[in-house]
Amino acid sequence: MTAGPCFDPRDAARVAALPPDDPLRVHARECPRCHALLDAYLAFEAADAAGVPADELADADTRLARALATATGAGASTAAPQAERRADRRPSFWEQLMQPSLRPALAFAVLAVAAGAVLLWPRAATREPGMVLRGEGHAPAFVLSLAERHDDSLHVAWAPASDADRYQLQFFSGSLAEIGRVGPLTGTRADLMLAGLPFRVAAGDTLFVRVAALAGGDVLATSEARLVETR
Amino acid sequence: MTQAAPDHRDDDHLFEIAIRDPGSVAGREAASRLLGRHQRQVYLWCRRYVREHERALDLAQEVLLSAYRAMPGFEGRARFSSWLFAIARNKCLNAVAAKRLLVDDDADPDAQPHGSPGPEAELELQQDEERVRRLLIEHLDEVEREALWLSCFERMPVDEITRVLRLDNATGGRGLLQRARRKLRAGLDRGRLKEGA
Questions:
Q1: How many Å lie between the alpha carbon of A231 and the closest alpha carbon of chain B?
Q2: Structural domain that includes position B60
Q3: ipTM at complex level
Q4: Is pTM beyond 0.80 here?
Q5: How confident is the model at residue B107 (pLDDT cuts 50, 70, 90)?
Q6: Could you tell me which residues come within 8 angstroms of residue B44 by beta carbon, excluding any fewer than 6 positions away?
């Protein structure tokens, strides 16, 4: 094998551009590590989408563009060329509601809701407290009614969430670390074989589950997390 | 279906604007555009590893946001695409389980193939990359070496190895890896017999 320094992954593009008889390029062919790394980089560059459904590609494009726009604070129009431009969009319902002429009525409505919440608070406080998990911060808005584990299966059921078109199950270990997800699912019940889960569950393991209601890939709401009870 | 890689000269131009004044509107928009040009590449790479759309999306988002946070420290000596590849590679390696060097992961975990040195010795061997490299060169041909390295150290799934190496025979990457492991075990076995002689 030609002696020569193995290259850092960050230099893969530079090595790939070298002429075939360059000593570093020769070494990269002969060394299993460098050969594998170079071919991996070329596969990354090729971005072969064969076998990936077009709707998932489109969903990835949209959601990643939105995430970048949010993270960088840049306008959505620069990150996603197909996103509608702000100037061309009709005012949303909330923008119409926040017009100056409607603000007094909106303020009254907020006060009325707050008063109602105060009156109802004692009833709400008697609910069984759910686990608090880090996540997108969506307020629990629908009920997870069943979370049970039998010998080799797991059963989860939930009430439907309005406007949701799919649901995703999110699983957490006893230390509240997320260990896997199942979905997206249609319907409001999932009967799963333990062996088919994307993570391993041993007998006696503590497992929590939470359901996320999705619409177009965005999370609308999440249920409270619930301990999966063993039957 | 492949997507043409973004022109690196455009990357250089956007990167200059992005790091000149990262807090400015122009800087943030340049960073967003630069990463946006590569977002599909990153998603497809992550999908090769985690095999499922939502997990690939989560991982791709982590990669892109890590790259955005690290951009001020990227001095531009490497090409942006390979710098981004390095970040995506690290995230994906951490997201999947390690593969064993000498035994097929789909094999019966209770069976010990002939010539295998045992799990602890195998783990010790696998952590010594330099020694593994020498052994692969000694006992395997070029394609076998690369396939085994892609599996064990790049943690690439078997069907992706088939695609990367452009294998078109019926057994593809799986058959190649089985053969490579068998030859490596036999080579190690012969080496141990010689030492014992």
A1: 29
A2: 8-95
A3: 0.88
A4: no
A5: low
A6: A47, A48, A49, A52
